[in-house]
Amino acid sequence: MSEQQPESHDRDRDRPFDEFDQIVAEESTRDPDLAVIEAGSRTLRAQAGPPSGDPVPTRPEDPEVAKALQEVEQELATRWGETKLEPSVSRIAALMDVLGEPQHAYPSIHVTGTNGKTSTARMIEALLNAFDLRTGRYTSPHVQSVTERISLDGAPISAERFIETYHDVKPYVEMVDAAEEYRLSFFEVLTGMAYAAFADAPVDVAVVEVGMGGSWDATNVLDGTVAVITPISLDHTDRLGSTPGEIAQEKGGIIKQDATVILAQQPVDAAQVLLKKAVEVDATVAREGMEFGVVSREVAVGGQMLTLRGMGGEYEGIFLPLYGAHMAHNAAVALAAVEAFFGVGGEHARELDADTVRQAFASVTSPGRMEVVRRSPTVILDAAHNPAGAQVTAEAVTEAFGFSRLIGVVAASEGKDVKGVFEAFEPIFAEVVVTENTSHRAMGADELAAIAVEVFGPDRVQVEPRLDDALEAAVTLAEEEAEYGGAGVLVTGSVITVGEARLLFKKG
């Protein structure tokens, strides 16, 4: 197995040299993909200003810091990407050993599952912060900046701290590289950086999302006192298994001896596997729909109002500024995880302070997940990239917005069940604009269009190879119905697509 450099993605060679190309050329010293994104943001007509308190960091304004961050990103890019794996924790374990086992310096809440991991981790973090605990959160992938992956006290670490952390661990990374058969991967290095940054802070508790699977994921060198498993469905089937039960075998690898397992609603075969694993390691299990769950929910302006049943009691009047039933269920899982961390439902038969819980949930953000970035027409970003995710997104859009006409913009990665995604969205998309993001793993627009035509028919499919053009086209199609009102645009298909679209809308 040899290491591969990231592929270049030379696009639109036959396109006439225009203002967009000129801006990209001027940005030639920058990361080429980022240059394309930022150039697009300066030429796109369909824009909306960034909201106050945007939780996603932008590129550093200081040119020296920006250059140093780019150099770190370039060094990380020489390593195996997140889709190239050698299923083992030997390398990350070796790195932890030479770093002094930083992952054991604090208790952890470990989060796995197929969909909802990042949103759930953010909710857990918000609850812990509200109870005056210092948190470290590690999530992936990032929406816009790699620094998003490592957060302290609810905010991504600064570019300066990210750079400093990288250089702190770099000598130890090189030691492990020299001793192992394969160099540490991009994700393994970032995991080591996160654990080291959390120990250095220091944090009171870490909230850690797995990258893929569980058993052999790089994050799985910690012992999570609470293991959270969000809904399991089919994704990464070439690596994790072809049924929910098989995938659960891998996901269940995060369940450790004597831990508390917070189990979201699962397919029957997945639940059976996870409960069996819990019994084997003498873990305590709390199941959604049994020990905790959503009592009631109703749509509200800017989100939804919830009543949640936790392991210690019922929590009423919770405003969650996120859309969709799936987000309500994520909130129930997050609440149960924090209750378990504090011992509620075990040795403490009490509930958490309800006002603090309300305050925490009201502060939650989840960039790129049912995120509104423009009004008139409304543009929503959602990172759904598999059929199960697309289905809950379609339901959430229908419930919360009730568009009379919705235009889809879809760019996906190779190897995904794109047809299943399109089938989930077909009932709500009047038309779909297929496009590409700048990732070297992006599925070509023409290939994507061929699949879209199978589902939507040729009259409802438009092809725009460049994302900025696709967004422009979708907004134009939506605006054609402006006189009737109720038109919108949903941008989806992958986290990369959403991240690039977010830049285009918010940085112009």
The biggest beta sheet is recorded as: 8 strands, mixed
Main sheet: strand order: 4-3-2-5-1-6-7-8
Distance between the termini: 42 Å
Percent of residues in helical segments? 40-55%
Number of strands: 17
Our estimate of the beta-strand percent is 15-25%
Average pLDDT rating: 85
Output the radius of gyration.
22 Å
Secondary structure category = alpha/beta
Low-pLDDT segments, ≥5 res: 1-52
Q: How many individual helices?
A: 17
Shape: globular
What topology emerges from the helices and strands here?
Elements: H1 19-26, H2 32-43, H3 63-77, H4 90-99, E1 108-112, H5 117-130, E2 135-138, E3 150-152, E4 155-156, H6 159-179, H7 186-200, E5 205-209, E6 226-229, H8 237-240, H9 244-251, E7 260-263, H10 268-280, E8 284-287, E9 293-300, E10 303-309, E11 314-320, H11 325-342, H12 354-362, E12 371-374, E13 378-381, H13 387-400, E14 405-410, H14 418-425, E15 431-434, H15 445-456, E16 461-463, H16 467-479, E17 487-492, H17 495-506
Helix pairs in contact: 1-2, 2-17, 3-6, 4-6, 4-7, 5-11, 5-12, 6-7, 9-10, 13-14, 14-15
